[in-house]
Q: What sequence folds into this?
């Protein structure tokens, strides 16, 4: 088969359960599983070994269990090995990396990217245009605003005293914030809009809008609009949404 001839086809090795709704020009690649009550939007590519609508824990013990609705927005690319659990809803143009894990009742806005081997523990909310790079982890209840960038190996725990499950409150991240590699945002922390979390930072306290935080524990060091470019004199790379104008 020539390249791209497979587009808009359902591979014979794929498994589709009852009550699956596919839009126009949907591709379901080899070995994919689409469980019941899943809707896949137009022009979406579902890669090899992907699972959509993975049943929730009650499936294994409740004989009356029914899969909650799962919705994948149009023009999405779900790459090989991705698991998306039942109850998840995504906007248009979702892209996942390989082996991403998106657990139940996660909400992703339009134009999100969720990188390879990254994990949502469920009940996580990402706004429009968020970009999550590989190997990042989000505990239940984490909220990201619009256009948040999360770089590799960053984590967002929800328990101050793990494995204690009482008083769990996940972090909340404001619009247009950038979180660099190997960062940890601790439970109950709120990071404002347009902030920058430096690499290897542990954020232990709230961060106001437009601030840069760095260190272990993280300390506010300056406003992000004061950060100079190290290459171009006079250029300020942050806020990143304004830097290219």
A:
């Amino acid at each position: 088969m020539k390249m791209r001839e497979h587009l808009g086809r359902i591979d014979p090795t794929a498994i589709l359960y009852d009550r699956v709704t596919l839009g126009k020009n949907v591709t379901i690649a080899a070995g994919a599983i689409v469980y019941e009550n899943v809707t896949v939007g137009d022009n979406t590519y579902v890669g090899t070994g992907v699972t959509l609508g993975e049943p929730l824990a009650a499936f294994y013990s409740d004989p009356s269990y029914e899969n909650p609705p799962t919705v994948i927005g149009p023009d999405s690319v779900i790459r090989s090995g991705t698991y998306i659990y039942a109850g998840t809803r995504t906007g248009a143009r979702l892209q996942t990396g390989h082996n991403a894990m998106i657990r139940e009742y996660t909400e992703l806005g339009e134009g999100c990217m969720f990188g390879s081997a990254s994990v949502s523990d469920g009940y996580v909310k990402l706004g429009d245009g968020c970009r999550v790079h590989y190997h990042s982890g989000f505990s239940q209840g984490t909220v990201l605003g619009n256009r948040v960038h999360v770089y590799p190996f960053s984590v967002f725990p929800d328990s101050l005293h793990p494995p204690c499950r009482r008083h769990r409150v996940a972090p909340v991240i404001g619009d247009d914030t950038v979180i660099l590699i190997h960062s940890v945002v601790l439970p109950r922390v709120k990071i404002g809009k347009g902030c920058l979390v430096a690499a290897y930072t542990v954020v232990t306290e709230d961060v106001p809008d437009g601030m840069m935080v760095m260190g272990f524990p993280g300390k506010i060091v300056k406003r992000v609009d004061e950060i100079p470019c190290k290459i171009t004199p006079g250029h300020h790379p942050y806020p990143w949404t304004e830097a290219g104008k």
